[in-house]
Write a structure and sequence with these properties.
single chain, 293 residues, Rossmann fold, 8-stranded mixed beta sheet, two-stranded antiparallel sheet, 9 helices, 12% strand
């Protein structure tokens, strides 16, 4: 079995374990390549059907193509799609692009607070109607305490401290020093009632593994990852004001793989174009301790 098949098998096992052990389960879909690979793996694990909802936290500052991509494949793959947002911060323009917040404060409000309150069901959720393709505002949803996330250990420093099954407290806050050991593929899944658990099926994948798997499986990804003639493309996708394209002429998946294997990005951090990471000391631990993805 080659390395990609090993990773695929492990991820499918983690997804099935999560579905068996956690009844209030949801998968976060950021629309980027990692969470799209994770969604693809979930469809494989459950034979084309994803048996739990997907959630996207919409900051309203995503690049428009990302939202179009989300809705197109949610309809095509018949996904139970939930969207959350921080209505009050957006209405008051307490965001970085509007000058009333730093990048970290903006992330904390539009991502962390929005995620926690959407997961808990305290804030409204927008649910996709697969008949009409429209979203309807709902209130009073059940809380989700098992959250599947597309984090990879190699992506940045704080993610390397995660476990496959990583507990949080009732406020989704993460105690980095209090994580269960995971040895010889033995995973702790019996947590105290009220514990929030983040599940990481891609934890041992690398950026190169992800792109190799995208190539092998012909997984459709947002075209922002490719150069369209300007000599620039996105390597990591986030909010428009805080994510910069990189100089690259890679126009397809094969050329991206070549850049990662021995080309210009072989030894450059994937998230080097994310400005909010730089504000947090080139890491995300401050945000992630409070519940950031």
């Amino acid at each position: 079995m080659d390395r990609l098949r090993e990773l695929e098998s492990q991820s499918v096992f983690i997804l099935r374990e999560a579905y068996r052990e956690f009844k209030q389960l949801v998968m976060l879909w950021s629309i980027g390549k990692d969470s799209t690979v994770m969604l693809w793996l979930a469809r494989k694990a459950f034979f084309g059907h994803v048996p739990f909802p997907l959630m996207h936290v919409d900051t309203h500052h995503k690049i428009p193509e990302m939202i179009e991509y989300r809705d197109r494949f949610a309809m095509q793959w018949k996904l139970h799609m939930i969207v959350g947002q921080h209505e009050a911060a957006l209405a008051a323009k307490k965001t970085f692009p509007d000058g009333a917040a730093t990048r970290l404060q903006c992330c904390a409000a539009l991502k962390t607070e929005a995620l926690k309150n959407t997961l808990s069901g305290v804030w409204p959720r927008w649910v996709l109607d697969l008949q009409t393709g429209q979203y309807s505002r709902t209130t009073g949803g059940q809380p989700f305490t098992g959250v599947i996330v597309g984090a990879r250990a190699d992506e940045e420093g704080s993610r390397s401290k995660e476990r496959y099954f990583s507990p949080r407290d009732k406020q989704s806050e993460w105690d980095v020093a209090d994580q269960p050991p995971e040895l010889w593929n033995q995973f702790k899944t019996d947590f105290a009632p009220g514990t929030h658990v983040r599940i990481h099926p891609l934890l041992d994948w690398t950026e190169l593994n992800v792109w190799e798997y995208i190539e092998r499986e012909s997984i459709p990804v947002v075209s922002l990852y490719f150069d369209h003639g300007a000599g620039r493309r996105y390597r990591s996708l986030g909010c428009g004001p805080c994510t910069k394209p990189v100089e690259s002429t890679a126009k397809n998946v094969r050329e991206i793989i070549e850049e990662l294997r021995g080309g210009k990005f072989a030894n450059i951090a994937e998230r080097s174009g994310r400005d909010q990471d730089k504000e947090d000391g080139y890491g995300l631990e401050t945000l992630r301790r409070d519940g950031y993805m």
